[in-house]
Every structure is written in C-alpha cells, then in structure tokens.
Amino acid sequence: MYGLGILKGMWVTLTHFVDTFVDDLRWLGRRYYTPEGIAHRSSKDSRGIFTVQYPEEKLPVPEEFRYIPFLIYDIDENGEHQDRCTSCGICAKVCPPQCIWIVRTEDPETKRPVPEPVEFFIDIDICMNCGYCSEYCPFQAIRMDHDYELSSFDRHAEHIFNKERLSKPAAYYNEIRPVNFAIDEAERAEKAAKKAGN
After folding, report:
1. Is 3.30.70.3270 the CATH classification of the domain at 69-197?
2. d(Cα 141, Cα 115) in Å, to the nearest integer?
C-alpha cells in the first residue's frame, strides 16, 4: 500500500519533469518570454513546469487585476488638468482599513467647500486593495492600478502617496483597462446627456 503510493507520486513527478523538456523542445528556436510564449506557458494547454525569471520577465496581469488606487484626471482644451475627484469623501467612508485622507478645498471668502481636493493621501501599507473606493466613487475618479512593484526601505517617505503621486491621466486608465474605460465613458456620457436634458 505505502510503496504503491510512493511509486505513484514519483511517476507524477517524473511525468512533469519529462513534459517540461518536451515542451521546451517544441519551442526550440523561439523565445518563451515573449508575450506569445508567456501566454502559451500560462495557458491550460501548457505541460510541465514554467519558471518566470522575475524581475527581468513578468507575467502579464489580467485587466481586472487590482492594486493601489489612483486618481484620474482629464486634460481640457487648454492642456490643463481637470480632477474628476470632487472630494466628496465617499471613498474615505467606505474604506475598510480607513487608509484614505482627503483635505477639501474651501472658498477663501465664503468658506464653502469647492469640489476639488487640496490634498489626497493613501497609506499603501494599510490599503488592502479591496477596490471599494473605486466601486463606490460616483464620479469614476478613483480606480485600481496594475502597478504592484512598490517596495522601498522608507515607509514614511515612500508609502504614503499624495495627490501628485496618485494622479494619472484618463489615457493611462484606458491603456491598462480598456474594457472598463469604455464602460465608464459610456456611463459618463449618459449622465451628461441626462443632465443636459433636465
């Protein structure tokens, strides 16, 4: 009984070992670590063992991959940045670990809030990448990034992201999440049409 189980386990190991080299021979003369090769090796059709030589080679992340949130801004006709964020604070309220801090802009004369943040901070060491801030944002101003290489030696200087570090153009969002960007833009156009109709 025990001897048979050991032999079965060794057979599985040997099969994976042989399959790896057979797959290597199929790709002889072609590079594995091209987008086509990586897509093949990480698909269900691949056999054997696949090693990525990180950080020189990286597996592509799926569109729905989420990491640290970032703020989206649009560029107007004059080439100026127009923040989508209105500092409403919904993202900070729904954040489970409470890692978002927003400083609202005030009108200097009336002291009323202006729909634009002066500062926006996210502590990336506390952020759990849940995506609630992105999901609940009514203005599609905050979305989840694909950049996961954020390690550093100084937590206080490098891991508390401010508004400048978090802000990225809408074109960047379109580049990393084209399907979601198209959906968001359709929703924004629909809201603008409803607002113009009322």
Report:
1. yes
2. 12
